[in-house]
Queue: 4 jobs
Job 1
Amino acid sequence: MARPAKRVTSEDVARVAGVSRTTVSFVLNGKDAWSIPEETKQRVFEAARRLEYRPRASARALAAGRSDIVLLAVPDLPIGEGISRFIEELAAALAGHGLTLVTHLAGAHGRPLPDVCATLEASVVTALESFSPEMAAALQRAGAQVVLPVLDSSPAMREIGRLQAAHLIARGHTRLGYALPADLLSQAPMTRHRLEGAAQACADACLNPPAVADVSLDVASGTRAAADWRAGSVTGICAFNDEVAMAVLAGARACGLSVPGDMAVVGADDIPVGRVAAPPLTTVAFDLHEAGRVRADAIVAGLAGQEPQLAESPIGPRLIERESA
């Protein structure tokens, strides 16, 4: 078996460029490079390129006074397309500032988040949900310069449920249902908050709270829920997200119900496949690009010693009306 290739070091770059390791460090880290002749700098850059030299994270951190790692704690639950898109947008926005995003499933069976922070030497730790003061302190002891709890997301999450229910109520539906995901996601705070928003819209219209059903991503589960709702005279369904909403659509068809004639359905997340569902899915969309940019700007501000500023609700939920409701 072939032995693994030896990692290229700054000493190798220095030897090929004919300079000292200190000169290599100054040139590649941009420190005091003004005093180094341009011809020497170009030799160093060319040697580093030819050798495919990549500085170790610890060396970069020492030179910069911090690492470029941003650690994102993700709840240990099924990751839907909405969360995936937010992670992609945040990673892209951070990359524009020279920062690297690393995600960690922060579940009960994984490594403690402060241990991960210390191992990665992360300069920033952020999350989809707020940190407790105790956890924030532990992360700072683990080396994080910036611990950025998200703002309380419950108002934005409740607004999603309120938009769904208000749309159905405005179209004459007086008995609503709410389709919860039948997995770990049903235990997440965001799930509860969306349901609370729908319930508040019903209360504001002097209607009964939504009839709740757990719906898995299969036809049988959607069929059972649709049959129960039909028996209870429920005609308008708010679904936690578009995936659950599409299971409801399939269940309604299996029960012989027309959508939106017999049962109207509203989802959330505006996933692309919802646009070609049968019928196309009414949904609530978010500005995830803006959410990623706002979070990245707050992180950069924190690293610069400023107070991170986050907009109250950068996702801007808005209803997109299609044929399902």
Note: The longest strand covers residues 69-74.
Job 2
Amino acid sequence: MAFDITHYRNTLVVTDGDWRSELFLRGWKGTSDLERANLSKPDIVRDVAEAFLDAGAKVLVTSTAGANVLSLAERLDAKDMTENEILAMNREGAAICRAAASEYPAKDLLVFGAMGPTEQLLMLNEIEDATLHDAYETQAGALAAGGVDAILCRSFTEIQALSIAVKAATSATGLPVVGSMTFDCGPEQTETTLGVTIPQACAEMVDAGASVVGCDCGENPDAAQAVVTLMRQSCGLPIWVKINAGVPQLVEGRVAYPETPDEFTRRLAPLAQAGANFVGGCHGASVDHIAAMAASRKEPKSKRGSSGTRRRPG
């Protein structure tokens, strides 16, 4: 089902969190090829989807951000994959989330199909516009075939590439499209690494036909409120935001995100006041973080009609 844009401009929705961490908890060993789990381990992908829904998330984002021909070709361990296999990653990733959501009595659960940036930059002439458009058009079509409600173009830093992705997704599917960038540079951390400002981003996304604008995965979640404020000043579309569970730290040689679920949840009210409409978690935001955020909304958790209490993997 296509969501009502007007409705979401005037409400606040809690989305899901960090799929990578949750898949690792369930035994997934992949590092740069998270999307493969949709084909080789659909059971744990389904379990993560259900865990986020049980936590109270109203939006699931498919684990497919890098599942296009261009992105996977950049990874040494994925060069042997066929285009049909790559399309199947998207289609199955979407279908798993769609099937999970369908078991819940709530009628307002949404599935967003994720598409992410490639390493090649248009500004350096490393790739042509038409090649990039074709890759995103194909990926978006596969996500739509799997049953997504919208396409999420996420974590972009190059505005031209995001514009192409949004246009490709719109032409391929006719579904609403979210255009989201990573803002973590500049004096106030309100620019992308390539110098794109928020007014520029919003103007380009509106021109490209985006239904929602957003930001995600900036290293410092403290900057998110300022980003959302500028977005609200720059356009009238609903705003999507996903934040990390604190500033990343190096702990015993591994990157960790220090915020507890309660600390993470305290960020919700300021983001809502700034104008955010969809709020969820990026790196380090576990099922427990999303459950705490959803509980703070004073809404009952979504529960499947046929199941009992779920256990977190130990």
Note: The radius of gyration is 18 Å.
Job 3
Amino acid sequence: MKGLMSLYKKELKEQLRTNRIIIVAGVFLFFGISLPLMTRYLPEILEMSGAIDVGSVLPPPTAIQSLAGYVSNMLQLGTLMIILVAMGAIAKERESGTAALVLSKPVDYSAFVVAKFKAVGLTTLIGVILGWLVCWGYTVILFEETPALGFLYQNVLMLAYLSLAIAVTMLFSSFFRSQLAAGALGLVTIVVLSLASNLPWVGKYLPGELISWGNSLLMGESADAAWWAVVVTIALIVFSLFLAWTILKRKEV
């Protein structure tokens, strides 16, 4: 891919200049710190306030609840945040005319798309790693037994899920000049894929199955490995980037 490294460096500088890396990392860190603290101390706070006798209603909080709560929140808010970051990746540059200027140079359209995907992907990876480390560390401090390996696997699967959100949003970003349209359709597509995982027969092959598998790994439950869901997720990422490249070549930039 001609010009890939140059474009990738440009995109990384853009991520830094616009503080996107700091914002994404900050959100993951915030929930990585706050969820274990909330899980551990919220029942005590409620009981001290006299609002409810927590001990008679709920079982004591556990490390599993802390880690699962973090991932559940980040799969929702993290997906939305990543879509907001990715929705202007191509649409914004098409709208401003920057894309036409860049693509008039000796660079491949495929390099243009892949560089943007890699840059947003690196921003996401940094956020996931920081959130994973901080959440696990705080949970170790606050609770006795903390499943390290299962939580690691769950975060890897979450990263794959978020990578799909990036690729799908970039696909729509290449089709529309409107960032809002790209973000809205990217979010709708991810939600539909997630809901479709509840369908019989085909659901276990769809990306939403990654979430169920991750929860099973975290809890140490015996469950069928969702490798086909991993394969389908990777295939959808590649296909989305391929379509984005194809659309850019055929449309007026």
Note: The radius of gyration is 20 Å.
Job 4
Amino acid sequence: MYLARKRIGREIHYFIRESYFAGGLWRSRDLFALGPDPGRYIIYPGGNSFYVDQIVEETLARKGVKTDQMELERIFLPFVDPHIRRIIKDFTHDFRPKKRLPAREQLRLQRNFHLFDCRRLLFLKFGGTNVDPLLKRPLSFLNVLKDKSRDEIEQHIMDAEAKLRPRETLAYIYASFGLAHRFRGRLTRFVPEAQIMEKLDKYFLEELCLLAEDETWRMGLDRETVLRDYLSRYVIMYFDRLEKQRNFFEEHQARLARERYLAARNTVARAAATFGVPEEELMRMGKEEISRLFRRRARELHPDHGGDHEAFIRLRELFEELMAARGFYRRLS
């Protein structure tokens, strides 16, 4: 059994569900609807103790599900009074070493897990956008994916995603959907911020739609269900949660463009005064025409012809700035 959440209207409602194997697939079913406040089923007899209302255990028993207070306390623990929860966790932590499978057996097992699920768990544990090479190693924490329905896997991962920091959102989606392979050949393929945002938007939506069509990942659910209940959160995460970050990037780019424009106009104004031509005329001149202006003025200022050495150096620097401002990018050797 596990705790599941689902948005109904404007509220989050909670359910006790279980995964079961039928028809060659792991599926899920509701066992008990807890409503928007599961805490109402928790009873505090005094001190630092609590127990779950007997009605929950009785209702599950009528559905043929055997359980006990220990299992129910684990499910209801997130809704227990924080002070009591902290004390209970200190005394219930399992310090026994977990038995690990031999490396070869572990690798064989994790090859059965869906790549999208593995990528998400790898990022949530290690971070970084180049997670695929890690799958060549035996990783026992991936076994949380074993013998679970699509819903139980998603509920587990949603809990872990809640701890993501806002600045990690883009990297998480980039790694999870394997978007780096869309930028093969680029040295920056593992840096999502280095990609063109319009292309990134397009590739993300394409990969999401491909996943929705993947029957192996859907595990018996229809396309509309997985889009609505599980994949829609990534669209919200990508476009809504990144909106501030996206706006900041666009404002930053606009500010840089404005600064470059003002710097270029300043350079043109200084060059026009130095060469003795109007700014408009200087802006219409081509590369060779500007070069001729420079050579003419350079001969007048060259030290070999009685000119000023410092003034000649400033003229040379101004010429290079002007060529860069006009987009010719010529640098004198």
Note: The mean pLDDT is 89.
